[in-house]
Amino acid sequence: MNSQHFTRTVEMAGFITPETLAKGATTGDIRTVMAAVPDLQGRLQGKRLAAFPLVRRIEQNPQSRAPLMEACAYILATNIEMDPMPTALTSWADGYSDMQFVPDWDTLRIIPYSPDTALVICDAVHHDGTPLSVAPRQMLRTQLAKLTEAGYEARIGLESEFMLYDADGQPVVPHNMDYALDHPPELVDFLRHLEDMLTDSDIPLEAIKTEGAAGQIEATCRYGEAMQACDNYTIYKQIVKHLARRRGLTASFMAAPATGVGSGLHLHLSLWRDGKPAFSASAQQDMPTETMRHSLGAVTAGLPSDVLQHSVGGLIEVMPQLGPLYAPYPNSYHRYATAYAFAPQRMSWGFDNRGCAIRVVGHGEGIHLEVRLGGADTNPYLYVAATLAAIIRGITEKRTPTEPCIGDAYSDRKSLPLRKDLAAATDAFETSTLAHVLLGTDVVQHYTTVATADIDRHRGEVTDVERRRFTTA
Q1: In sequence order, what are the residues at sequence separation of 6 or more whose Cβ sits closer than 8 angstroms to the Cβ of residue 130?
Q2: How many CA atoms lie within 13 A of 27 on its CB side?
Q3: How far is CA 216 from CA 194, 207, 208, 412, in A?
Q4: Which residue, among 134, 126, 106, 108, has the nearest Cα to 49 in the 3D structure?
Q5: In the chain, where does the domain assigned CATH 3.30.590.10 lie?
Q6: Three-class SS state of 267
């Protein structure tokens, strides 16, 4: 199927306004509105609403933040198979009650694979209008508010890897095509179609390339506002999976899709203050003399500003305690297991060093952090929320980092090892005083419950490895 199958209407592409939605619903150009909330796994969950009755209802109650619909709150308390987890949010104790979907109209856009369908991302709220604190979008919003209170704003870019398999379950290319530009025709068609769809969705694609593993693809989006970047990424994943299915392919966002293979979600992040980058040397020079006099001397660590130093210090201290938020499944930890596979094994940092968990990269005012902890399975809202919580801690408490890793990060024995599995990471998360302080006890308890259920399920499964090794033993 080629990209001409999907007709792009000039008036109906990418972001639209509620007024355009109303007009499209009246003319019949928009027939359906998907109202969605990102779930714990970062998937969009919700309902397909008939556009014309919805618009009429909105016109009768024009309050911009009025709920669009209700849905069972268990959407935010399930594992990846949608099995409900009994939590403080919802359980049989309250009959698995509903929550409300409040639209964020700034996210309203046309879905390119269904041009008569609009999508709006919503926030999950209780019936009294208070936000659900454990909802991924709300967790990110909470950390962004704290960052604003500290005087900063975050700009992020997400660099995503995924695997693409053919109908027989084989990689679409059989070998390493990292940085290649001579892709087979069927892959060229897929990539061109994907680029068209992302453009039509107003998702700010910067680059696509094939990666180091057979059938592995990497897509990078341009820097932008944090919430919008996570919203875009969530829609991007839905588009990738839909397009693959349309072509008889399978797109996998597993962190470790095969032994020795890792697919990451690398988070590029910088802080800004008063419209200027806060990590650069120029930001340090702009500091008041009194502030500089009492600084902790970032240049001694080779970092150009105290803000960058404290951010790295916070990440090194806090991120090992928040593992279930960026490595949420048992499979996530296989990505850390293989040395020299471009995934970190220790909580180290370094300059332009892809073996470290935290990579300081860029030049001049473009200097920024690349956090390499997250796998392709990571929920972006939780990943960014955890990262910002750690950075805010570092800045407010003036945390200093360990010494930078010089040379081979896989030979480093000074930095703290990453947790070996989800059980160890969940135990560290649940018992971490900092996790409770930075995120809230309700959040820690909620995500501990879900992770523990996943651990128990994984422990109860007999794997293919066991069958291969012990069937004839």
Answers
A1: none
A2: 11
A3: 15, 14, 11, 28
A4: 108
A5: 142-468
A6: strand
Task: Please report the sign of the dihedral spanned by the C-alpha atoms of residue 390, residue 394, residue 397, residue 402.
Answer: positive
DSSP 20-72: HHHHHHHHTS--EEEEEEE-TTS-EEEEEEEHHHHHHHHHHS--TT---EEEE
| Amino acid 159: pLDDT | 95
What are the tens digits of pLDDT across the range 211-239? 999 999 999 999 999 999 999 999 999 99
Strands (E), 195-305: 205-210, 216-221, 224-225, 250-252, 265-273, 276-277
d(CA 380, CA 23): 33
Residue numbers in the chain where pLDDT is lower than 70: 1-12, 62-64, 283-301, 473
At 289-342, the pLDDT tens digits run: 444 333 444 444 678 899 999 999 999 999 999 999 999 999 999 999 989 999
What's at 101, amino acid-wise? F
CATH number of 142-468: 3.30.590.10
Question: Rounded distance, CA 133 to CA 331, Å?
Answer: 27
Q: Into which CATH architecture does domain 3-127 fall?
A: Roll (3.10)
Contacts of 321 (CB under 8 A, 6+ apart): 428, 429, 432, 434, 435
Chain position carrying tokens 């061109």: 192
Which pLDDT value is given to residue 62?
Answer: 65
Residues of each domain in the chain carrying CATH 3.10.20.70 = 3-127
Q: State residue 473's pLDDT score.
A: 67
Q: Which residue bears the tokens 């409900």?
A: 84
d(CA 368, CA 359): 9
The pTM of this model reads 0.92
Give the Cα-Cα-Cα angle 427, 428, 433 (nearest 5 degrees). Answer: 120
Whether residue 70 contacts residue 153, with contact meaning beta carbons closer than 8 Å, is answered with no
Q: Looking at this protein, which amino acid is placed at residue 50?
A: A
**Helical H segments across 374-472, by residue range:** 380-396, 422-431, 433-439, 441-459, 464-470
Maximum pairwise Cα distance, the chain? 74
For residue 324, what is the enclosing H or E element? helix 323-326
